[in-house]
């Protein structure tokens, strides 16, 4: 793949003559020729980062490592300067990249006492070549990313390391900064609390840690500032002759190289929601309109006037309901005269009433409705639902009604991340979505072997008839584990479920800790204690990612951490994330599922006839496997639904992009 004498690759991946002042990948049409080239690129990439190739590369890195081990600190500094100069001149050749990996590994060992394992060397090699490394939980992805990030930065390529929350941004940047500093690289961290000056400084570093949300919004602000005109010559002339030049007000230096941590969460789960920069719209009549919509909705009768489709998460008026609404709205006139807008408003009101549940889809804090991310369990404080839905939920909960917002710019994650000149990622759960990751982002998924053999055990799964039986069984299993001294992590899907289980545990005197969207500020502290002897932790999905659960003294001898899943998630990947909290780095651990037939996922996808049959079989203690098969089918149906939503959003986004390009506008 590489020319060992010279590779122009690095020059094309950094700002400058080759890459441009604000480099990013141009938007291409999706015709048959592009698809053919895309497929061919996959073949080339697979050859560059195949397992056989990586085994040889690891041997080469070890060879350089043995040489570097003999150097003193001054010798290492001289070697760093030499490799940096050659990477700038010759690019990311295979030999130089191997040397850089060995250099980073040696410096990491000397500065933070953490030397990369062979599995981490493989993961880093995958990422520096623009692939997605699937590494098990606890395999050290944070340290692995340093290999690819530092090597690219030594070649002069600005690197963004993207993770899911501000805590991980600050933690990872702080822990890894000694390695980067020893290499002569600058490191920045961008979080939500920073002002514009601090953000520009963070993005101006060789390596920047940031969240996907902050990064994408700052890019969108740059796009608003640049418009269609961001040619290198024009921006350079402005910088020389204009004291308030746009180049001085930009946040980023372009989209050169990104490493996305928890890549499936960022690139798949969050891809359903477009990013929108907005401002409060004017007009005081909106609140009255939403109040009227809620009043109309309350006067309609379920089954006769409207249907609620829990599976597709939508409401629909019947012909009778449409007529009743038209008759009731006659006296109001105005916006209520139009059938389409009238029915859309009332359907939004019905959705607010029947589809969005407190302590599952949102919280109410300080008289504000706060959206909860169903995949992570975290609060999305600065997000709101569109087209009046958020305001109607505020009315439903008796909160102050916020103003509707006017859109200034819009961008999807799919569109944003495809603009990086090189995109890489890492996660523990990508195999289920590997086709989508390749077709949308050009990311090839390669699984990295674990450093030590896994000792994680599946100890069984149980299905009960109803919620009462399920929670009784969960409490019984938790008590048994606590009496044995083993720590237990119980995963729930909602804030409400976690708090319900907490009350049950309190009632029988089991001391425990709770982690949900109400305690997200102390997440790391709670998770850090979850592996202590006899500790019981009840958590929503937020406990599944980003922070290791170290085992306390003597816990490994008892069998390690035990994980209990109390409900199937939207995707099988998310279930595996929870199970992956135990058995890290060769530690012992076990997991099980305790479910019920009236869990949300199954209740919304199973016919009444099948539910009756399964209830009878479960009551008799027979054919539990049939219940699990039904749950897997329901989970697959939900996965397909979200896949359709992402494809539809991408298609609409591409069409919108072509229209905006034709009209001379951007975003």
DSSP summary, beta strand count: 20
Integer-rounded radius of gyration: 27 Å
The proportion of residues forming helix, as a percent range, comes to 40-55%
Strand percentage, roughly? Answer: 5-15%
- Widest sheet, order of strands: 3-4-2-5-13-1-14
Shape: globular
Supply the helix-strand structural class.
alpha/beta
CATH architecture grouping of the largest domain: 3-Layer(aba) Sandwich
- CATH homologous superfamily grouping of the largest domain: P-loop containing nucleotide triphosphate hydrolases
Mean pLDDT: 85
CATH class designation of the largest domain: Alpha Beta
Ends: how far apart?
Answer: 35 Å
Could you name the CATH topology of the largest domain?
Rossmann fold
Largest sheet: 7 strands, parallel
Keywords:
single chain, Rossmann fold, six-stranded parallel β-sheet, about 15% strand, 27 helices, seven-stranded parallel β-sheet, about 675 residues, Pre-protein croslinking domain of SecA, 3 domains, 20 strands
What does this structure look like?
- The chain is α/β, with parallel strands linked by helices and 667 residues long.
- It has three domains: 9-274 and 413-446, P-loop containing nucleotide triphosphate hydrolases (Rossmann fold), CATH 3.40.50; 282-403, Pre-protein croslinking domain of SecA (Alpha-Beta Complex); 455-596, Rossmann fold, CATH 3.40.50.
- Helix content is 49%, strand content 15%.
- It is built from 27 helices and 20 strands.
- The strands form five sheets. It has a seven-stranded parallel sheet, with helices on both faces. A six-stranded parallel sheet has the order 15-20-19-16-18-17, with helices on both faces. The protein has a three-stranded antiparallel sheet with strand order 9-10-11, covered by helices on one side.
- It is globular and about 85 Å long.
- 44% of the residues are buried.
């Amino acid at each position: 793949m590489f020319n060992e004498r010279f590779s122009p690759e690095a020059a094309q991946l950094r700002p400058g003559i080759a890459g441009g002042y604000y480099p990013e990948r141009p938007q291409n049409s999706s015709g048959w020729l592009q698809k053919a080239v895309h497929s061919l690129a996959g073949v080339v990439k697979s050859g560059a980062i195949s397992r056989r190739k990586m085994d040889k590369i690891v041997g080469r890195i070890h060879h350089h490592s043995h040489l570097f081990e003999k150097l003193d600190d001054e010798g290492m500094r001289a070697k760093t300067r030499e490799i940096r100069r050659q990477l700038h001149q010759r690019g990311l050749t295979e030999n130089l990249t191997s040397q850089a990996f060995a250099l980073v590994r040696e410096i990491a060992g000397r500065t933070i006492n953490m030397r990369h394992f062979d599995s981490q060397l493989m993961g880093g090699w995958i990422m520096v070549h623009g692939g997605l490394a699937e590494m098990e939980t606890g395999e050290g992805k944070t340290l692995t990313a340093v290999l690819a990030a530092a090597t690219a930065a030594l070649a002069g390529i600005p690197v963004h390391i993207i993770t899911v929350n501000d805590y991980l941004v600050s933690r990872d940047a702080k822990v890894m900064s000694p390695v980067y500093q020893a290499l002569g690289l600058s490191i920045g961290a961008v979080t939500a609390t920073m002002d514009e000056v601090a953000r520009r400084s963070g993005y101006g570093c060789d390596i920047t840690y940031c969240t996907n949300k902050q990064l994408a919004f700052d890019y969108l602000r740059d796009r608003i500032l640049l418009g269609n005109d961001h040619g290198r010559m024009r921006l350079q002339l402005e910088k020389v002759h204009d004291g308030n030049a746009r180049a001085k007000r930009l946040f980023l230096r372009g989209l050169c190289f990104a490493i996305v941590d928890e890549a499936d969460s960022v690139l798949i789960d969050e891809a359903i929601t477009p990013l929108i920069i907005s401002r409060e719209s004017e007009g005081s009549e909106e609140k009255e309109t939403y109040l009227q919509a809620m009043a109309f909705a309350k006067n309609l009768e379920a089954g006769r006037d409207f249907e609620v489709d829990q599976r597709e998460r939508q409401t629909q008026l019947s012909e009778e309901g449409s007529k009743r609404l038209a008759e009731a709205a006659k006296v109001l006139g105005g916006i209520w005269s139009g059938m389409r807008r009238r029915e859309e408003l009332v359907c939004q009101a019905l959705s607010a009433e029947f589809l969005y549940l407190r302590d599952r889809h949102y919280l109410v804090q300080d008289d504000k409705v706060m959206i909860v991310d169903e995949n992570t369990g975290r609060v999305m404080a600065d997000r709101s639902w569109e087209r009046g839905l958020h305001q109607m939920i505020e009315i439903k909960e008796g909160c102050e009604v916020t103003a509707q917002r006017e859109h200034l710019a819009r961008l999807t994650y799919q569109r944003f991340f495809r603009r990086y000149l090189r995109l890489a990622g890492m996660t523990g759960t990508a195999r289920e979505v590997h086709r989508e990751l390749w077709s949308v982002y050009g990311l090839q998924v390669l699984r990295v072997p674990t450093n030590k053999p896994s000792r994680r055990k599946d100890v069984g799964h149980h299905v009960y008839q109803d919620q009462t039986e399920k929670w009784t069984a969960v409490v019984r299993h938790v008590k048994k584990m606590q009496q044995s001294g083993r720590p237990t992590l119980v995963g729930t899907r909602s804030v409400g479920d976690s708090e319900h289980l907490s009350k049950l545990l309190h009632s029988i005197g089991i001391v425990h800790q709770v982690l949900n969207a109400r305690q997200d500020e102390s997440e790391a502290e709670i998770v850090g204690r979850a592996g202590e002897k006899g500790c019981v932790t009840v958590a929503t999905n937020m406990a599944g990612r980003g922070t290791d659960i170290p085992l306390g003294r003597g816990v490994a001898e008892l069998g390690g951490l035990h994980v209990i899943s109390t409900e199937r998630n939207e995707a099988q990947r998310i279930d595996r994330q929870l199970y992956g909290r135990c058995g890290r780095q060769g530690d012992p651990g076990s997991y099980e599922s305790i479910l019920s037939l009236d869990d949300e996922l199954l209740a919304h996808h199973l016919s009444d006839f099948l539910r009756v049959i399964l209830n009878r079989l479960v009551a008799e203690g027979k054919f539990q496997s049939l219940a699990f098969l039904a749950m897997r089918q329901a989970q697959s149906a939900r996965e397909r639904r979200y896949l359709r939503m992402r494809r539809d959003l991408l298609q609409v986004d591409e069409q919108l992009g072509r229209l905006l390009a034709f009209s001379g506008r951007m975003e």
